[in-house]
User: Which sequence fits this backbone?
């Protein structure tokens, strides 16, 4: 009976919070926050890319070679360039006929107005010299490889081997080690990203009751633990809606993805297997949300104004980023002491264990981790509710603990 | 044997820091009564009510609420209007009332239906779909009050319910309290406005400085002070002091003195015999206000609540 009543009270609070959050125009901003963030990132990236493209368009590698070798070196350049992706290809080749002192001509190429030389090759191809700009180390390597290829073409002519290899698509039976690391990072990042979005919402939610003075109505009818759990559940409902929306969107985008990109994604297969990983990801997301949410709720409950909430937001965000950094480091070094620490420390445990699921097979550790995290959720909620009760319900206006003295007036 | 008390507390103590803000208060509220907790600001009324409801835990003493040793166990049968009114501003009036019912175990559909009836009865039917932020302070306060009775509680606890209400709404509130009592509910409310308490209370407790100074009926409280007589001579400046009792004191053009134990007839006879005219001679019964001031005396410290 008591449990039933507690559940009912908790759900009543959760329902109120869910509706109050979702059925507002502001929620659309929250729902589309990733688009807004993505748009800003895209605008920034486009700007950076256009600056980089502008620089790349003017960059050149220069070969000072006799006219008799101009065609050969151009053909070799065309052939070698096919190996590179477009974004990774060396700067375009410019050939110059030798004029006077080749060394002086090479130096003057760096002062050319119509291009920016990254590296300049001069002298006989058999013993070339390359002048290298500070950013042209790899392009210098390419120029030397180009000289070698040109010489090989000249010497072997039609005898130069040309292989027609068979290409057979092949998929790994097990995920690659690199793919596991990448999966781990994406798992950690995914949970971090979701909790980052929700933290701001949770931290301010108790202040609403305090500002509106509804808290005493709630406290008279419902145990504060139920208020806490209700608020966490309400915001969790918001989170589920958010995740479901974006999972659907991403799923549709995935279906439209080119096969080559989809094959690349296949490398991300986690070590525990896709279905188990999906379940664990959800479980760890819930735990991360409840753990961080209960801490944020407890801390946020001490604030009574938006200003205080804003002040609290910074250390909270720093805490989240610290947990993300710790867990990311753990994901890249599975089995290390750092990984073990991150998996055991309550606030980073869900992140790190999600990474663990991507990196290493075996499920028993996850059962133990979920129990461990559940214990800490209980502790955090109990302590948070107690702090809240002490902070708010003495008498008169609510004061945070750091402002309280022992002589509050009774009404 | 069924407990005939809706609320019972013995030796309640609450300390904030080193100070006992509630210092050994006893309260017994009979079932079906309208019971007032009176006291000056800072007397400990709100803290006492909060302890009775289980919102805060006492540092000493025992209490039962509707027969439950743990007030939380009875919370679904209790309605509460706190001194600091609070509603979610974005909620509509009907939803706010249904929400408060849902917190106390009433299903939403019934809550909404009852909310409509209550709003209509309170003359607020037109505001059912208005958001709380659009309502006046008094209207919002009435909505909250309706929310505290929507689940038809056995015990209604109101902390300073009349503050912030205009005279019309104060009358509505009094009517609602009577209606709740007639329904069979017990009403426990705190106030420092004597007029309401005098009209409404079957019994009352007066507390000051965290201690209970009086417990009884309004008549009991008034009986603590003697009745007084006011005499206004017909002619100004008449020398009547020799005829009046020794404790008579001037009050403007007239005189005031304690009603003699044998009645006013003796004084009246002496005045007539001495040929003094009588413009007014009346017996004044002390009000609850006088009794309150008498009981609280110097304990009224005026500490802000």
Assistant:
């Amino acid at each position: 009976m008591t449990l039933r009543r507690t559940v009912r009270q908790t759900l009543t609070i959760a329902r109120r919070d869910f509706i109050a959050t979702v059925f507002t125009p502001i929620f659309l901003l929250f729902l589309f926050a990733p688009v807004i963030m993505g748009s800003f990132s895209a605008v920034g990236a486009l700007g950076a890319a256009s600056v980089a493209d502008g620089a790349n368009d003017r960059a050149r590698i220069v070969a000072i070679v006799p006219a008799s070798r101009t065609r050969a070196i151009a053909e070799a350049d065309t052939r070698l360039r096919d190996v590179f992706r477009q974004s990774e290809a060396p700067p375009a080749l410019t050939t110059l006929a030798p004029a006077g002192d080749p060394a002086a001509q090479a130096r003057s190429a760096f002062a050319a107005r119509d291009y920016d030389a990254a590296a300049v090759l001069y002298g006989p191809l058999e013993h070339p010299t390359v002048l290298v700009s500070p950013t042209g180390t790899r392009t210098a390597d390419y120029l030397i490889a180009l000289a070698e290829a040109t010489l090989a073409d000249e010497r072997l002519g039609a005898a130069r081997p040309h292989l027609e290899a068979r290409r057979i698509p092949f998929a790994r039976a097990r995920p690659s080690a690199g793919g596991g690391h990448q999966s781990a990072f994406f798992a950690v990042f995914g949970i971090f990203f979701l909790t980052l979005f929700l933290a701001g919402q949770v931290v301010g939610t108790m202040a609403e009751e305090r500002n509106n003075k509804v808290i005493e109505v709630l406290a008279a009818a419902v145990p504060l633990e139920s208020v806490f759990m209700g608020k966490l559940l309400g915001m969790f409902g918001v989170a589920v809606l958010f995740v479901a929306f974006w999972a659907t969107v991403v799923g549709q985008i995935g279906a439209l993805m080119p096969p080559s990109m989809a094959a690349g994604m296949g490398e991300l297969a986690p070590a525990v297997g896709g279905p188990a990983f999906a379940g664990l990801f959800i479980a760890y997301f819930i735990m991360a949300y409840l753990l961080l949410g209960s801490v944020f709720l407890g801390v946020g409950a001490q604030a009574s104004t938006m200003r205080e909430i804003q002040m609290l937001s910074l250390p909270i965000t720093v805490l989240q980023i610290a947990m993300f950094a710790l867990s990311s480091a753990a994901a890249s070094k599975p089995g290390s002491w750092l990984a073990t620490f991150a998996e055991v420390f309550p606030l980073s445990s869900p992140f790190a264990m999600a990474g663990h699921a991507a990196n290493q097979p075996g499920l028993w550790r996850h059962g133990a981790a979920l129990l461990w995290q559940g214990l800490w959720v209980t502790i955090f909620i109990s302590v948070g509710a107690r702090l809240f009760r002490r902070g708010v319900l003495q008498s008169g206006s609510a004061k945070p603990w750091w402002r309280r003295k022992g002589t509050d007036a009774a009404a | 044997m069924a407990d005939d008390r809706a609320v019972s507390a013995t030796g309640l103590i609450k300390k904030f820091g080193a100070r006992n803000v509630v210092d050994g208060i006893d309260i017994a509220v009979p079932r079906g009564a309208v019971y007032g907790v009176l006291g000056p600001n800072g007397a400990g009324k709100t803290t006492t009510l909060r302890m009775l409801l289980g919102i805060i835990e006492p540092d000493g003493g025992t209490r039962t609420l509707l027969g439950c040793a743990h007030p939380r166990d009875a919370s679904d049968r209790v309605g509460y209007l706190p001194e600091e009114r609070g509603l979610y501003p974005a909620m509509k009036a009907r939803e706010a009332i249904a929400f408060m019912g849902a917190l106390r175990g009433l299903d939403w559909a019934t809550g909404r239906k009852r909310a409509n009836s209550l709003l209509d009865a309170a003359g607020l039917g037109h505001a059912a779909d208005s958001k709380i932020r659009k309502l006046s302070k008094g209207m919002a306060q009435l909505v909250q009050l309706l929310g505290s009775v929507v689940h038809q509680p056995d015990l209604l606890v109101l902390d300073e319910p009349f503050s912030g209400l205009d005279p019309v709404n104060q009358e509505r509130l009094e009517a609602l309290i009577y209606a709740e009592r007639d329904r069979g509910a017990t009403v426990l409310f705190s106030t420092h406005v004597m007029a309401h308490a005098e009209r409404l209370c079957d019994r009352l407790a007066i507390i000051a400085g965290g201690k209970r100074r009086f417990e009884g009926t309004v008549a009991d409280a008034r009986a603590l002070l003697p009745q007084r007589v006011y005499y206004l001579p017909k002619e100004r400046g008449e020398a009547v002091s020799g005829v009046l009792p020794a404790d008579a004191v001037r009050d403007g053009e007239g005189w005031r003195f304690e009603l003699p134990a044998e009645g006013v007839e003796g004084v009246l006879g002496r005045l007539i015999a001495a040929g003094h005219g009588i413009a007014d001679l009346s017996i004044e019964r002390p009000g609850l206000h006088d009794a309150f001031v008498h009981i609280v005396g110097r304990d009224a410290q005026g500490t802000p609540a």
Confidence is low (pLDDT under 50) at residues 395-411 of chain A. The longest strand of chain A covers residues 116-122.
